[in-house]
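Hi Prof. W.,

I finally got the Phosphate transport system permease protein PstA prediction working! I wasn't sure whether to trim anything, so I left the full sequence exactly as given:
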Amino acid sequence: MNAVETAPEKTYTALPLVAPQLPKWAPLIALLISGSVAGLVSLLAGWGLYAAAFVTVLLFAIVLPAWSRGVEGARRSKDRLATILIWSTFGIALIPLVTLIWQVVENGAPALSAEFLTYSMRNVVGEGGGIYHAIVGTLIITAWATVISVPIGVMTAIYLVEYGNNRLPARIITFLVDVMTGIPSIVAGLFAYALFVLFFGPGVRMGFGGSVALAVLMIPIVVRATEEMLKLVPHELREASYALGVPKWRTVTKVVLPTSLGGIITGVTLAIARVAGETAPLLIIAGKTDSVNFDAFSERMASLPVFIYYSYMQPGVPPEFGQERAWGAALVLIVLVLFLNLLARAVGRFFAPKTKR
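And this is what came out:
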């Protein structure tokens, strides 16, 4: 009788389709454990709040990756460690910004009032007065600087991108723009003062001189921003325009510039925000006054940065009122720069090319 031999059945081990993962609340638990240990150590050692926060982050960067390595594996553990380091450095970068804004708001908010924004410092000693003359001066000086720098910057960028073709003049201009980007602001003020001394004599002070100094700082920013925006315009648009027989200058004005207009306006607005808070050039050439001056070509003209400097360094007697005005003016200047940055984003989004899908 022949026995029928049957092959032994193979057993298969089921593999999980999803790798083991820590629960969603694991980072919170690790952070609470790290904070508790750091708080206890700080309490026993007598450390301050900053030391406790540093120890908390350090323990968190050890506890969570170690826990993840035991459950999720080495690859996921390294990812969590890198995430913790990135967020930690981001938090460290925010500390001085948040501290600065908090200090300015805390000290400057009590000074804000209708009188502070609508009155000047003419014939004011001690309490009272305002920054109306400095606001007017800042707006006029910055407006003239924009009128000077924007046409020069935009035309220079158009030449570099559309006509330069990496020739020697274009390379020289690019090098000079790079040099201008790094010059100190006080050098721009000295340049404007030396230039105006040639025409008006020593001791000249006027708002338009401050505009010229700020324009020197604005031009390289406008050139760089416009140049990058023009380079983003696809060459196919230019080639299509040339194929229709359109001359180059009309292609630039009707095709290239409208396409990149949003980015150019954003760059110009950011350049305005960059120079609105400059102090050194205006100290040298624009001067200081306590009266409102609407004529940029005559006499001294006040500005917010110069007003802040003199109000804090020479607050008068008693000094509390002058220092309070300095903090209030600093808050107004920060709000003005913030508004310009938000305006740049809104304008850039509004003028961005509309795409349909």
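DSSP finds 13 helices and no strands in the chain. Does that look reasonable to you?

Thanks,
D.
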